[in-house]
C-alpha cells in the first residue's frame, strides 16, 4: 500500500526527473519508494513524536512511518545514496538538492520535483521530515563519517541545529559547532 501510494503520487524519480516508461503497465523495476525518515528507526520515530507530522494515518495504531507523507519515489541507486545521507533536500532553500559526496547523477543544485511537495496536503511529502533528513545529512557529513548516529549524538527529541538557529548569536554558535566537528579539516 505504501509503495502504491507513492508510485501513484510521483510517477517518476522526483530527484532526477526520470520517468518510468513502464508505469502504465505497472512495472516499477528500478524505482523505489524511499522513506524520508528511515523505517529501521521506527522506535525512535515513535519515542520522539515524529508521527505528529503525519495527517493521513489509516488507523489508530498506525505510527505514520509508512505514510506517503514520509516518502519520495526514486531510482534505486539514488535511493541508496539518499539513505546513506550522501545528499538531501532542503525545504528551506526552495527544495534545493545538496550533495555531500561525489555527484555521479548530477543532482546537486537541482530542485525536488513539485509533484511530491504538497506539504499541507494529505499526500505530499512533509517539509518537517525533509528538514529533519537535511539536518541529519549535514550532521553526518560534518563528522566526515558519512553515517548518521543521531541516536547517540543528542538526547532523544532534541534538535541541535534548530536550537542553535533559533537561539542568540546563531551564526557564531553554528560556526563554533562546525569548527569543533570538522576538527580543523582543510578543504583546499
TrEMBL record:
This chain belongs to which protein, by name?
HNH endonuclease-domain-containing protein
Q: Which UniProt keywords apply?
A: Endonuclease, Hydrolase, Nuclease
The lineage's top-level taxon is: Eukaryota
Q: Which organism is it from?
A: Lipomyces orientalis
- Recite the lineage of the species: Eukaryota, Fungi, Dikarya, Ascomycota, Saccharomycotina
Amino acid at each position: 500500500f505504501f509503495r502504491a501510494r507513492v508510485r501513484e503520487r510521483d510517477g517518476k524519480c522526483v530527484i532526477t526527473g526520470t520517468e518510468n516508461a513502464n508505469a502504465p503497465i505497472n512495472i516499477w523495476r528500478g524505482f523505489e519508494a524511499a522513506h524520508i525518515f528511515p523505517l529501521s528507526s521506527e522506535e525512535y520515530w515513535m519515542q520522539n513524536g515524529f508521527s505528529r507530522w503525519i495527517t493521513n494515518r489509516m488507523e489508530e495504531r498506525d505510527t505514520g512511518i509508512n505514510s506517503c507523507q514520509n516518502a519520495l519515489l526514486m531510482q534505486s541507486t539514488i535511493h541508496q545514496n539518499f539513505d546513506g545521507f550522501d545528499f538531501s533536500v532542503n525545504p528551506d532553500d526552495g527544495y534545493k538538492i545538496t550533495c555531500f559526496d561525489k555527484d555521479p547523477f548530477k543532482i546537486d543544485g537541482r530542485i525536488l520535483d513539485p509533484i511530491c511537495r504538497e506539504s499541507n496536503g494529505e499526500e505530499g511529502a512533509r517539509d518537517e521530515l525533509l528538514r529533519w533528513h537535511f539536518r541529519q545529512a549535514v550532521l553526518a557529513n560534518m563528522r566526515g563519517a558519512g553515517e548518521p548516529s543521531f541516536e547517540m549524538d543528542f538526547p532523544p527529541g532534541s534538535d541541535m541545529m534548530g536550537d542553535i538557529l533559533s537561539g542568540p548569536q546563531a551564526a557564531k554558535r553554528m560556526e563554533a559547532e562546525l569548527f569543533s566537528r570538522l576538527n580543523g579539516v582543510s578543504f583546499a
